Amino acid sequence: MTLVTTLPAAPPQPGALPQPGALPRPEARLCTCWPGATVWLTGLPSAGKTTIAEELAGRLRREHRRVEVLDGDQIRKFLSADLGFSRDDRNTNVQRIGMVAEVLARNGVLVLVPVIAPFTDSREAVRARHRATATPYLEVHVATPVEVCSVRDVKGLYAKQAAGEISGLTGVDDPYEAPRAPDLRIESHTQTVRESASALHALLTERGLA
Q1: Cα dihedral value 76, 77, 81, 84, nearest 10
Q2: Tens of pLDDT, residues 47-69
Q3: Buried-most residue among 107, 126, 146, 156 (CB within 10 A)?
């Protein structure tokens, strides 16, 4: 009688081609047939920008889209840790985020940017960067009134400003220049997060981006 011993398969080597019949990784199933784009959600602190972006990102991922959310707090922590909150530093922060978003977008990623970006000239510079490479760019104003934002006060910023612990809070004692003609204006205080995300999804569909 001949004994046959089956050895375990060797682990794949880096750079090795996938074996026939192997299941693709989940990220390999994401759709690359749509153009990338940057969607910048501007608005006051606690307006709901990040919440709407994350809701939309989840929906788009379920539709197998390549999506990234560039969270402002994470950017401040890692990419712009050297910056303060002067007008020049705020502008530099916005331009850094805009550059990252444009690179991702022109390589097929749908980039959602829930970042205040309080000054018109800063936002227009980001738009110009995208225009120069023919990369789709949409500006969305999450137009939640400061009275509502101060009640939500997700990060406690309004309370700290009222107590004199901080200054330079956008929309309170620092300027916020609202977009005059955004691609979409969302009044998140009058509708649910899902409804807000759906309105933005409808805009993307209308523009051939979703």
Answers
A1: 40
A2: 999 999 999 999 999 999 999 99
A3: 126
**Whole-number Å distance between alpha carbons of 34 and 200:** 16
Q: How far apart are CA 203 and CA 185, in angstroms?
A: 11
Per-residue pLDDT reduced to its tens digit, 94-129: 999 999 999 999 999 999 999 999 999 999 999 999
Give the residue from 195, 201, 196 showing the smallest Cα distance to 138.
Answer: 201
Task: Measure CA of the first residue to CA of the last residue in the chain; give whole Å.
Answer: 63
> How far is it between the farthest Cα atoms of the chain?
88
> CA 68, CA 18: separation in Å to the nearest integer?
26
Phi-psi region of 43 (alpha: psi -120 to 50; beta: other; left: phi over 0): left
Confidence (pTM)? 0.84
- Return the residue matching tokens 């509708």: 191
Beta-strand pair 110-114/37-42: parallel
Nearest C-alpha neighbor of 105 from the set 37, 53, 57:
37
- Burial label for 62, CB within 10 Å (0-12, 13-18, 19+), is exposed
Contact 29, 64 (CB under 8 A): yes
Which residues does 101 contact at the CB level (< 8 Å), separation at least 6?
Answer: 38, 40, 70, 111, 113, 126
Residues 159 and 153: beta-carbon distance below 8 Å? yes
- Sequence length of the chain is 210
